Amino acid sequence: MKKLLFLLFFLSLSVMNAQDYFPANDGVKTSQNTSFAFTNATIYVTPSEIITKGTLLIKDGKVVSVGKSVNIPKGTKIIDLDGKTVYPSFIDMYSDFGIEKPKRQTSGYGGSQYDSEREGYYWNDHIRPETNSIDDFKFDTKKAKSFIDAGFGVVNTHLQDGIIRGSGLLVALNPNSTDAYRFLNTKSAQYLSFSKSNKSKQLYPGSLMGAMALLRQVYNDADWYAKGNMKNKDLSLEALNSNRNLVQIFETDNVLDALRADKVGDEFGIQYTIVGSGEEFERISDIKATNANFIIPINFSDAYDVSDPLLTQHISLRDMRKWNQEPSNLSELSKNNINFALTTYKLKDVKSFHKNLQKAIKYGFDKEKALAALTTIPAKILGNNSIGNLKTGSYANFIITSGDVFDAKSTIYENWVQGDKNVINDMNIKDITGDYMLYVNATNYDLSITGKGAKQTATIKLGDKKLKANFSYADDWISITINNDDHFTRMLGKIINDANLMQGDAFDAQGTKSTWSASKKVKKEDDKKSDENTKEKSEEDTDEDSAEKDVLVLPVSYPNIGFGNFNQPKTETLLIKNVTVWTSENEGILENTDVLLKDGKISKIGKNISSKEATVIDGTGKHLTAGIVDEHSHIAASAVNEWAQNSSAEVTMEDVIDPNDINIYRNISGGTTTSQILHGSANPIGGRSAIIKLKWGENAESMIYNNSPKFIKFALGENVKQSSSRNGTRFPQTRMGVEQLFTDYFTRAQEYEVLKKSGKPYRKDAEMETLVEILNGDRFISCHSYVQSEINMLMKVAEKFNFKINTFTHILEGYKVADKMKEHGVGGSTFSDWWAYKYEVIDAIPFNAAIMHNAGVTVAINSDDREMSRRLNQEAAKTIKYGGVSELEAWKMVTINPAKLLHIDDKVGSIKVGKDADVVLWSKHPMSIYAQAEKTIIDGKVYFDRNEDIKKREAINQEKSKLVTMMLKEKLAGGKTQTPKKREDRNFECDTLEELKN
After folding, report:
1. Strands (E) located in 754-810
2. What pLDDT does 895 receive?
3. Are β-strands 933-938 and 340-343 bridged in parallel, bridged antiparallel, or unpaired?
4. What gap in Å lies between CA 659 and CA 286, rounded to an integer?
5. Alpha-carbon gap, residue 515 to 493, rounded angstroms
6. Which terminus of the chain has a lower count of CB atoms within 10 Å, N or C?
């Protein structure tokens, strides 16, 4: 009965596949026999289902049966694979195979392009979900061969262009067929990225945070469109909604962008499959928390050429570590049960894929999981169970190898795609490698043959002299030509027995014929034992556990750069005794006082405090202050300006917090514990702020204040009207235009709120939502400002719309309007002594802070500079010199006053029972130029300790020395190297413009 059912199934497949409706005008149409049985093979049906001495039966491009006892129908061609292994062909989930990326459009001299060029599509040209990859696809036979040779049978390709890129194409790499059969899915996935389209010159988005905001708005607009609320036709939004149920694949460049992409997806209930960067090991816990599937490239970097000590000094520890650590990435992902597929993406040459994968396996990556990452996992992510396995009914996509496919010694013989054979290495070529004694014309030569398959090569020696020689082995024929001092001997012959004895005819330059022979050298007993020991050692080396021991992977720190923490700080109970306390409260400065920090809070302040559980710190002769608060900073960010529109209220700096920025560590070394990370001043209405605690080593989310007050950056003056721009055409171009822009936007925001409250359908607009928050007093403005006329103007605009400006930052002409600022209720966050660095600052004076303070304005001293922010204690001291402010009031300008301006004075800014334990222990008077921050404590955790800092410096030197030694060994062993490069520190300022890459 089983046999009958099997035959009926086989016949049904035959009939189904035989019904070819295409006419044949180029010859007869008789089909060839397409039934094959591969017998006696080790068959990997899946990575975990393995059949030894099994049979694989295929017909018409599909697997008909697989197992130990397979009935082979009459007429089937039988191929004996005794001693060989069969694996499912690999799948590359992320490729641009067959699709050419468009060349980047340049702006030229025609000014800047702010609007879309297309009609009937979304208002932003970088949103292209309507793109169908099939329209641009052309099968690339040459590139297909490189994939086939590496074992791939299927690629998932798409047009790698734009933020939303449209649908992809699942293609079988069958050079012997047509697209009608190759296309497995013409809408395999929808693709996204943070990169703009090369097809458009439209400027927006000009930043990473702009790209994130744009994605959010697109999703909101797609929902609005789906409900039938738009009057116009939008083919982009239609396509986006149509593609909503496809696999959503998001390309990222680094581990932080992977987390950012996941954040956007989570907000809209979308679980992206994320194309990683190979850096996931640096934030493995955060990566795991995404619950996302990943597609991981294995484009490992080469060691640096460290032979020049002077050039070596410029290589950052971060980059040196990357070379050492990144091969362990796959192992770390696997150990943490993160589901991922592998890709050739980012490799310069597909040929290096196996070499890199073998390196990852040496670093502890499990081979079974490696096979799954190339077969069953990508198939499952794509929702296609007919690829990536050799189960009955699946496509006959498989490779035939000499053994373990991940062993460098193994050979891939053939790669069958949709039942069509692609020969990579002739599996009938005998392995004749070894050492031989070659005898010709009464002379003995040493012949050594290495390599595999058709690529076996030979070297020939006469005594110790290496001779010039050519060797080839094909179709069972051996051809050798020897050049011994221009005396040529040519030989042709064959192998005549299983011992690889070779014989044939030889010819000299005159054509005189003789005979030649070569026989394998007989090894002595001692040599055999040596070979056996070598073999045993080799087998041990291939064992994964042993391999891990042989590889030294340096530990990861958080962040994974110099001065990172190998162990994250923990909340401690700390008792600081007999210290001078600067409270920044009415109590002023307290001498010989104790402060108890417990559970992340300031628990007690007084004298003779005791605690059994506390670690006691002797504060004798030292000073304790609240952590410094910087009201205006641009550190710890991956972007600073969304400059491509005159209003960017839709973007938020919280999206682009960079916890890896070394300036965080430098700031806490100078006593700064809290910073407002502001958007730049490229436009009148800038982006929303991020208020962060400088918790070095934590992730971005952990640094942002819980229930953070809402702030936004506004700007006035030269920057926003593009005074320095060579081709700026964006409105406004004058200071008058700036005022009109504010009026226009707030009028629109009022109208938006009226519609929103009416109960009628409305299009959710992130920009308008933010401005409504300002109107309602739920979001506060920090405004970049210089000139008194504009300062007055903005206060009047705010009063017209019945809200207040919270802070004028820079405010270098604040001394002229201090009375009006007091009346309006706005604070001033200024520089201590900056002036005349551009024309609109020509009237600035260093007495500005003191004058505003004396007028009753809440005044803070800010940095707006990565270097100044680590010495704000000294900047505060300058107000004593310029204006005679008292020491205590001067100190308040970098502690409680900026905390008040940021509406966080209930948490930080002073030493008061119940507030957060954010304090700094100084070696001397905190405003002395000789004072050093000995300990910087945030939430009761010691994030900076000067003694530990000295140890870290020594550890960095030792680690770099170790890495230099490892790289020298790599070079001496013949490994590839790259030229040393210096990693440039980014220096974001108010006017920094960074183009979002295409």
Report:
1. 780-785, 807-810
2. 98
3. unpaired
4. 13
5. 9
6. N
234 Cβ contact list (under 8 Å, min separation 6): 120, 121, 122, 221, 225
pLDDT at 20 (0 to 100): 55
Taking only the tens place, the pLDDT of each residue in 965-980 is 999 999 999 999 999 9
**Amino acid identity, residue 866?**
R
Angle between helices 208-226 and 766-775 (to 10 degrees): 100
| Type of residue found at 112 | S
pLDDT at 538: 44
pLDDT tens string 719-775: 888 766 655 678 888 889 899 999 999 999 999 999 999 999 999 999 999 999 999
Q: Which residue has the tokens 């039942």?
A: 419
Query: Is-contact 36 76, C-beta < 8 A?
Result: yes
Structure-token pair, residue 481: 């030509």
Report how far residue 673's alpha carbon sits from residue 920's, in angstroms, rounded to the nearest whole number: 9
Q: Identify which has the larger pLDDT, 993 or 605.
A: 605
Structure tokens, 85? 């292994």
Whether the predicted model's global pTM rises above the 0.85 cut: yes
Q: What is the mean pLDDT of residues 146-158?
A: 98
Contact 512, 500 (CB under 8 A): no
* Local structure of 789: helix, strand or coil: helix
SS3 label, residue 192 = strand
Q: What pLDDT is recorded for position 453?
A: 75
* 351-408 tens-digit pLDDT: 999 999 999 999 999 999 999 999 999 999 999 999 999 999 999 999 999 999 999 9
Nearest to 944 by CA among 694, 604, 598: 694
Q: Are strands 434-440 and 443-450 parallel, antiparallel or unpaired?
A: antiparallel
Q: 13 in the Ramachandran plot: left (φ > 0), alpha (ψ -120 to 50) or beta?
A: alpha
Q: Which two tokens stand for residue 706?
A: 């819980």
Helices (H) and strands (E) counted in the chain, each on its own, are 26, 44
Alpha-carbon distances of 284 from 255, 638, 699, 868, rounded to whole Å: 9, 20, 11, 33
Q: Where are the alpha helices (DSSP H) in 933-979?
A: 946-972
Q: Where are the alpha helices (DSSP H) in 655-787?
A: 662-668, 700-703, 735-758, 766-775
- What is the structure's pLDDT at 112? 79
Asked whether the CA dihedral 739, 740, 743, 749 is positive or negative, the reply is negative
* Residue 938 bridge partners (DSSP): 941
Arithmetic mean of pLDDT over the chain: 92
**Cα separation of 749 and 942, whole Å?**
45
Q: Which residue has the tokens 């988005």?
A: 205
CA distance 670 to 628: 9
Instruction: Please tell me the number of Cα atoms within 13 Å of 203 on its side-chain side.
Output: 19
- Tokens representing residue 65 in the block: 């049966």
Burial class (CB in 10 A: 0-12, 13-18, 19+), 474: exposed
CA separation for the pair 57, 70 (Å, rounded): 8
Contact 661, 130 (CB under 8 A): no
Tens-place pLDDT, residues 626-682: 999 999 999 999 999 999 999 999 999 999 999 999 999 999 999 999 999 999 999
Instruction: Tell me the CA end-to-end span of the chain in Å, nearest whole number.
Output: 62
Structure tokens at 596: 């108890």
**272, 274, 267: which is closest to 766 by C-alpha?**
267
Contact between 725 and 820 under an 8 Å Cβ cutoff? The reply is: no
* 872 in Cβ contact with 865 (< 8 Å): no
Q: How far apart (Å, rounded) are the C-alpha atoms in residues 327 and 719? A: 45
Q: What is the mean pLDDT of residues 788-804?
A: 97
Give the number of other Cβ atoms within 10 Å of residue 684's Cβ: 27
Report how far residue 917's alpha carbon sits from residue 600's, in angstroms, rounded to the nearest whole number.
5
Q: Return the pLDDT at 733.
A: 83
What pLDDT sits at residue 731?
80
Helix axes 255-267, 208-226, angle to 10 degrees: 20
| C-alpha distance from residue 414 to each of 38, 179, 505 (Å) | 12, 22, 33
